[in-house]
Amino acid sequence: MKDNENGPASPGAAKALREQAERRVLERQAELPENLHALTSDQARKLLHELRVHQIELELQNGELRSAQERLQAAQARYLDLYEQAPVGYLILDKNGVIQTANSTASKLFAAERQPLTGQPLNKFILPEDQDIFYLHGRRVEQGEAGDCELRMLGAVPFWARLASTMGPRNDGAALWRVMVSDISEARAAQALAGRAAQDWQKTFDAISDVVWMLDADGRLTRGNQATERIFGRPVSGLLGLHCYEITHGTDHPIEGCPLQRARKSMRREKLELQSGDKTFEIIVDPIADSDGRFNGAVHVLTDITGRKNIEIEKQRLTDRLEEKKKEMDSFLYITTHDLRTPLVNILGFSQNLAKDTAELLAAVKPAAVPEDKREAVSEIGGERIPSALNYIAQSAQRMEEVITAMLKISRAGSVEIRPEAVEMNEALKAVLDTMRYQLDEAGAVLKAGDLPPCTADPVSVDHIFTNLLANAVKYRDKDRKLKITVSGKKNGTGTVVYTVADNGAGIKAADLPRIWQLFFRGEVPGVKKGEGIGLPLVRRMVDRNSGRIWAESREGEGSTFFVELPASS
Questions:
Q1: What's phi and psi for 485, nearest 5 deg?
Q2: Where do the structural domains in the chain lie, given as residue ranges?
Q3: 46-86 confidence digits (pLDDT tens)
Q4: 208-239: per-residue pLDDT in tens?
Q5: Model-level pTM greater than 0.70?
Q6: Were 543 and a residue from 158, 246, 515, 550 both cysteine, which residue would form a disulfide, CB within 3.0 to 4.6 Å?
Q7: Do the two domains 86-190 and 421-567 of this chain adopt the same fold?
């Protein structure tokens, strides 16, 4: 670079400029008059004017030169700053790959001072395993190809770098490499992480036993898992680009009811069951929308549901068989109880007649007519033993009558048709309370009912269930304290409603709690007449038939809480 490009001229440059000016004066001296004193005043004034104009022109030119010099220096400073502070390393190599110049970023990358870096071959900073990559890159650059390569280099720690190189002549004609070095360690780490994530995703994708496809907007296969080859006997690579119906159905057009076509219109999940030979498949299609909400492809899942369908068929067969057996049982129970009732009525009737006849016989027989040694025996047999036996027969027959009546109720409960509908429980409970008003008032009960959410059940069953639970609360109350009953209900977030009927009555023994649902079980409660033992079993059967469940919690002497869970009203 010339001296006056960077600042004021040096003394040597000023001297050379002076000599050049003197030569120009000597060259132009011939143009001047030989005797300046011979000039007229007009000629002198004209000459002086010319000199002043030249002087001003020189001053203007000098000002422009100084301004240009300042701009050049500023541009050079900006260039040097850009060069030095660039986010990548810049190197200039000679034809042998030796570093001639380097910016500060390159020095930082290689963890070397700039002066020691200059004069070093660049391959000194490349890992031995990647030397071949650099050699081939250099050959391509020498052949005039501009290109890049990625390799590992040595710095404070080894790092991944991208080299972008070109080759051009220097001012003296010698060949130079211009190399840009970028640290891509983070990018390579992210790329490796993305690669591992992609591998993990593919492994997961291929581990799915169902056939999973990704379809484009035209319904063509763009990706599929390994289950595709297992089901269709062809590798995924040979199916890419085909329409899903070409693969699944072997047709050149969508089948009737095609779930993909329906999903394209509805923009929601669509399903279809497909029978193929002895196999049954379920196709599920979930649409994919673009940023504007329009159909842009779909996820197509094909599941072999043959086992599930066989189980459903077998379940239905067993359900039908069970229903048939249940009807047979109900019929048998009805016939049996009816047939048992006839002889039972005879037993009761004749036992009553026999008791009456015995009393009449004893009254008719005069004590005098009976030998003295037999009188005591006759009195004992006719007055005590026969009446006692007849009373036992009557009690047993009465108990048998109660059992038969209970069996008939159970039988009828199983044959009653269940008609589920939306039930407003606040109104349903009010109807139950109106029916039981006398019993509740007679017991002095205090009943508190919260707001009850609606349910879906058979209204008749609901009435019977809550009537029975409230009747039990009244019957098994603690006579030593005022009866309090609380009825409440809430949705539990699983599509059902749980109602509670709680009381502060006598409670249930812990040992008896699991047995209260058993048919004919009658717990012992002091001062309370035993019931038939069918109330709670009948309640449970009604709850079951309404797709619900019932359970209880109780502490003896503190009270009981019954929980009834029924489907919520939609």
A1: -125, 135
A2: 1-30, 32-85, 86-190, 208-304, 338-415, 421-567
A3: 877 777 777 787 778 787 888 888 888 877 777 777 778 78
A4: 999 999 999 999 999 999 999 999 999 999 99
A5: no
A6: 550
A7: no
